[in-house]
Amino acid sequence: MAGFDFDAVVVGAGAVGLACGYALAKRGLAVAVLEQETAIGQGVSSRNSEVIHGGLYYPTGSLKARLCVAGRRALYPFLEAHHVDFDRCGKLVVATTVEEVGRLDTILDQALTNGVDGIARLSKAEALALEPELKCEGALISPNSGVFDSHGYMLALQGEIEAGGGAVVLSTPFEGAAPLAGGGFSVRAGGEAPTGLTCRYLVTAPGLSAQAVAARIEGFPQATIPKGHYGKGMYFRLVGKAPFSRLIYPPPIHGALGTHYRRDLGGQAVFGPDLTYVDTLDYSVDPAAAPAFAAYIRKFWPGLPDGALTPDYAGIRPKLHGPDEPQPDFRLDGRDTHGIENLVTLFGIESPGLTSSLAIGEEVAARLGL
C-alpha cells in the first residue's frame, strides 16, 4: 500500500461489490468499499428473490454461465462456514403444456453444457410425486438450487473485509476519480464529510448507477459505456400455507426467467418477479396486477385460491437490453475495453449476479492481475 491510502477501492456495497472487496481482501489487499446509502445492500441486492441459481439457461461460454456455476459451487460452503441461513430446496422447471415439453430438453442440454450438477429430467408422474399440487406435463429438477439470507451473506462479506484490515464506508457517495501519473487513482467521495483518497486498484460495482459512476472517471471513453435500462419486477405474497417445498419455475420468458414461486426462509410463499421497463426508480407494487399474477400462477398451480395474493415488494434490475432486444452477458470491463490500467467496471449485473457474486469477485481480481 506504499504511497496509497488503500490498495483498492470498490464502489458499491451490494452483494457484488462486497464480494469483489472480499476477493481482494483475501489476497492481502487493504480495501475500502464506498457506499452512498446508510447501510449495505440497499439497492438491487435488497430487492430480489434470494434464489441460488443452478446456471441452467445461460448461453454456452458466457460469463453468466461460467460465473453462475462457479459462484453457486462457492456459495454454499461460504454460507455454511459463516452460519448464514439457507435452504437447498431444489428447483423444478415445469412444462405446463404439452407444447412446452420440448423446451425442457433444450434447457437440459444447455444445463449439461454449462456443467450444472445433478440436473435431471422428470416425467409428469415423477414431478407430481414430489409436488402433488403442481400442474405440469413434465419437469426438470435442479437439486442444488435454493434460497438464502442475502443480507446475512452481505454482512459476512463485510466482516471478512473488515477482518482483513479494510473498511466499508457508508453514506459516502462516489463523486469521481482520476488516474494518477505514476499509476493508481485519486478518488473523490462526498457525503457529510467529503474526502479524497488514493488507491492502486479501482472497481466499480454500483448496480443501477453503473453508467453514471463510469462517466465520472476522468479519461473513461464514454462510447464504451453501455446504455442502461431499468427492468422492474413486482412480487406478491400468498396469504395461507405454502403449496410447494421446492422452487417452481415455468420456462423462461424473453429477457427474464419469468414469474416463479419460492418458499422463503420463513416458510411463506412468494411469487414474482414479472418484468416491465420503467424510467424511474419506482418501487411501488400495483395491487391491480394481482389478477394477471393469479392467471399466470394458475398455469402451474390451479389450486391458487381467489383473493389470496397480497402485494409484497418490487425490485429493479440493471438491464443492458430493452424490451425487444436480445439479453446480453454481464460486462466486466478491464483495460482491454476502456484502456485504463488497474480499473474494472461492472455493468448489467442482474440475475444471476447474486448467485455469481463470489465468482465475479474472483474474476475481477484475475482481471486486475491478482
List the helices and strands and how they pair.
Layout: E1 6-11, H1 15-26, E2 31-34, E3 51-52, H2 63-81, E4 86-87, E5 91-95, H3 101-113, E6 120-122, H4 124-130, E7 138-142, E8 146-148, H5 150-163, E9 167-169, E10 174-179, E11 185-189, E12 195-204, H6 210-215, E13 229-238, E14 247-249, E15 260-263, E16 269-272, E17 276-278, H7 290-297, E18 309-319, E19 331-333, H8 335-338, E20 343-347, H9 353-367
Parallel strand pairs: 1-2, 1-12, 2-9, 5-14, 12-20
Antiparallel strand pairs: 3-8, 4-8, 5-7, 6-7, 10-11, 11-12, 13-16, 13-17, 13-18, 15-16, 19-20
Helix pairs in contact: 1-5, 1-9, 2-9
Q: How far apart lie the N and C ends?
A: 14 Å
Beta fraction: 25-35%
Query: Structural class given helices, strands, pairing?
Result: alpha+beta
Multimerization status: single chain
Residue-averaged pLDDT: 96
Rg, Å, rounded: 21 Å
Number of H/I helices:
9
From the spread of the alpha carbons, the general shape counts as elongated
Strand tally is 20
Major beta-sheet overview: 8 strands, mixed
Helix content: 25-40%
Give the H and E element order. EHEEHEEHEHEEHEEEEHEEEEEHEEHEH
